[in-house]
Amino acid sequence: MSNNEQDQSRPIIESTEVFELALKEDDNNTYELKLYVSGMTPNSLRAIENVQKLCKVYLEGRYNLEIIDLYQQPNVAKVGQIVAAPTLVKELPLPLRKFIGDMTKTDRILLRMDIKAHG
Fold first, then answer.
1. What is the DSSP track for 20-61?
2. Domain regions of the chain by residue span
3. Residue 110 burial by CB count (10 A; 0-12/13-18/19+): exposed, middle or buried?
4. Measured between alpha carbons, how far is 52 from 67 in angstroms, rounded to an integer?
5. CA 24, CA 112: separation in Å to the nearest integer?
6. Is the pTM of this model over 0.85?
7. pLDDT tens for residues 9-56?
8. What superfamily in CATH does domain 30-112 come from?
9. Per-residue pLDDT reduced to its tens digit, 74-93
């Protein structure tokens, strides 16, 4: 069998099928999130509450959220290249995304972090 015959016998998957499969796989991905706060200030507590609520509403059963207090673990800021708090980092699914600042802006967080509602 020639190379040309082998190529013709393989099923051809159209790019739209590949794209749809990739989207379906993305829907099943677990979001790995880290929220960096600085102490247990009112701003930090509000950020924690808002991000937890966002996760429960939009990512139910599809997320891991780690909360890191930079006052207790200051070396983590340098390693994670965190320049301000609060900062929310989406490590997975790729690409890595960061949201710095007001964690009450749910629409902006969803857009910036490329979080897709389940469904």
1. HHHHHHHHHPPEEEEEEE-SS-HHHHHHHHHHHHHHHHHSTT
2. 30-112
3. middle
4. 10
5. 20
6. no
7. 545 555 555 445 444 555 558 999 999 999 999 999 999 999 999 999
8. Glutaredoxin (3.40.30.10)
9. 888 888 788 899 999 999 99
